[in-house]
């Protein structure tokens, strides 16, 4: 999927992430850990976001032969989803849907919004 994100959208998303971190540091840190796990496993951030938002995942499923690793990843995501204020993270995703799960994850990892501006292919 091709997305185009402008600087203002990215800055707003970054601001929302900072607000989430301020309001519920535990939830933010859990989400950040999931983003880092997603990167380490080389799974798609879109796959991660789709699971967190209870969306269809077949288009973004990881290309791994290890069902154990996928199930482990899903268990970790389930622990985030079971947190008390998880609805705040879902609302953040919903409010910044045009930014994409991938760009939100990259903002969590510390990328500058200026690097993410423009068209991008999101898998």
Give a topology summary.
Elements: E1 2-5, H1 7-23, H2 25-41, H3 45-52, H4 67-81, H5 86-95, H6 101-108, H7 113-116, E2 118-121
Antiparallel strand pairs: 1-2
Helix pairs in contact: 1-2, 1-5, 1-6, 2-4, 3-6
Please name the defining characteristics of this protein.
123 residues; two-stranded antiparallel sheet; 7 helices; 2 strands; globular
Can you describe what's shown?
With 123 residues, the protein is mainly α. It has 7 helices and 2 strands. The radius of gyration is 14 Å and the shape is globular. The mean pLDDT is 90.
Helical residues, percent: 55-70%
From the N-terminal CA to the C-terminal CA, the straight-line distance is 6 Å
Strand order of the largest sheet: 1-2
Q: State which percent range the strand residues make up.
A: 5-15%
- The shape, in one word, is globular
Structural class: mainly alpha
* Unreliable sequence segments: none
In total, the number of strands is 2
Continuous helix count: 7
Largest sheet: 2 strands, antiparallel
On the 0-100 scale, what is the average pLDDT? Answer: 90
Radius of gyration: 14 Å
Tell me the series of helices and strands, N- to C-terminal: EHHHHHHHE
């Amino acid at each position: 999927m091709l997305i185009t994100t402008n600087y203002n959208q990215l800055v707003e998303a970054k601001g929302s992430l900072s607000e989430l971190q301020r309001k519920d540091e535990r939830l933010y840190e859990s989400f950040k850990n999931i983003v880092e796990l997603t990167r380490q496993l080389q799974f798609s951030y879109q796959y991660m976001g789709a699971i967190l938002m209870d969306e269809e995942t077949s288009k973004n499923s990881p290309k791994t032969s290890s069902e154990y690793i996928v199930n482990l990843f899903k268990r970790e995501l389930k622990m985030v989803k079971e947190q008390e204020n998880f609805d705040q993270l879902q609302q953040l995703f919903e409010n910044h849907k045009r930014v994409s799960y991938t760009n939100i994850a990259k903002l969590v990892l510390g990328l500058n919004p200026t690097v993410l501006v423009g068209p991008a292919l999101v898998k």
